[in-house]
Specification:
mainly beta, 16 strands
Amino acid sequence: MKKLMLLCAAFGLSSFVQAQTLERMQWFNEPEHWSIKDNRLTMQVTPQSDYWRISHYGFTVDDAPYLYTTRGGEFEVKVKISGDYKVRFDQAGLMLRIDKENYIKTGIEFVDGKYNLSAVVTHHTSDWSVITLDRPVPYIWIKAVRRLDAVEIFYSFDDKEYTMMRNCWLQDNTPVMVGLMAACPDGQGFEARFENFTIKHLPDQRRVQWLEQHQ
């Protein structure tokens, strides 16, 4: 019996780990060349691809590569990002997406020769905010925390000290696709790399408060 319980526990843990692996995620706009090894995704970003809706530029595009899984409720997601950025608007990061009119993409973006921490929030129309870095960086950690109807976005250079760069609205109590996105609006593609991708479930705040009040 003890051996059986240990085997069941091991199987359950193995299933949990598998559920978090990149291999079990799916593509939206799969790029022509990509690979996954040791929880690291490397992709050759599709040329002239992006996510944007209407505002400022007057066009809508929804054709960049995106590897995702679907989550309900509240969670924390983070990833380490690096890339061989070449031309204006080359970008890589996380994306949380409900549908083509409601999504958040955030990460690093190469603009006019400089590295920028970038966030695009789209609810029918897109907006864009950036924090320009004073020097190139070999990699960046991006973390997003979904709580109720808000998403907090953080960045880090060492996966230890995180700084919040944006707090934005996203419809709560709605399943969301979450995963890894890269885009190359102006160029002919570049290599983007994602490492140590993790998602951690967070207990629903409203339910926790209700349970506390009704003990």
